[in-house]
Amino acid sequence: MRRVARGDRRAFDELYRRTAPWLTVRLRRRCADQDVVAEVLQDTYLAVWRSAASQASASAGGSAVGWLWTIAAHRLVDAFRRRARQERIPAVRTFETVAPAAEEQALAGRIDGELERALLTLSPELRQVLRAMVLDGLTARETALLLGMPEGTVKTRARRARIALREALS
């Protein structure tokens, strides 16, 4: 990392050669779209090239691979968010006897400011899980890996968030 931080192109090429296959496999486990994986990989290594100096000075002996994965995970979430904004979400049909889930109402676009206020009542931990699972479309397992917490914790927080939203919106 110190050599990459000094602008050594060969060191960067070596870092890429050693870590790109591993990083690609990890990204493919979280995203089936190969174009998104390629984009995230490119964005990750561009960020590494641009900020290697700060990483090299900040972590004497720290894990470059851990730092690399952190960048890639954040770039993947960003890509999911971009995709969600670009896609039009169809209206959700509901039946009068069945109350729609809060996230279904949000995705159908039927509540705006009310949802925003309800989301602000949630703790940051609950909002983080709900954002990853509902807006980014990640599974509980993917969310757990992305946020670095047990899958059971993710499921519990998602359930608590949904209950709190339902109460806040009723």
Automatic annotation (TrEMBL):
GO biological processes: DNA-templated transcription initiation
Keyword Ubl conjugation applies: no
A single MF term (Gene Ontology): sigma factor activity
Taxonomic superkingdom: Bacteria
InterPro entries hit by this protein: RNA_pol_sigma-70-like, RNA_pol_sigma-70_dom, RNA_pol_sigma70_r2, RNA_pol_sigma70_r4_t2, RNA_pol_sigma_r2, RNA_pol_sigma_r3/r4-like, WH-like_DNA-bd_sf
Gene3D superfamilies in the record: 1.10.1740.10, Winged helix-like DNA-binding domain superfamily/Winged helix DNA-binding domain (1.10.10.10)
Keywords for the protein's UniProt record, in alphabetical order: Sigma factor, Transcription, Transcription regulation
Domain RNA polymerase sigma-70 region: 15-85
Claim: Transcription is one of the keywords in the record: yes
RNA polymerase sigma factor 70 region 4 type domain sequence ranges: 114-165
Similarity annotation: Belongs to the sigma-70 factor family. ECF subfamily.
PANTHER family: RNA POLYMERASE ECF-TYPE SIGMA FACTO (PTHR43133), RNA POLYMERASE SIGMA-70 FACTOR ECF SUBFAMILY (PTHR43133:SF46)
Protein name according to UniProt: RNA polymerase sigma-70 factor, ECF subfamily
Organism: Micromonospora phaseoli
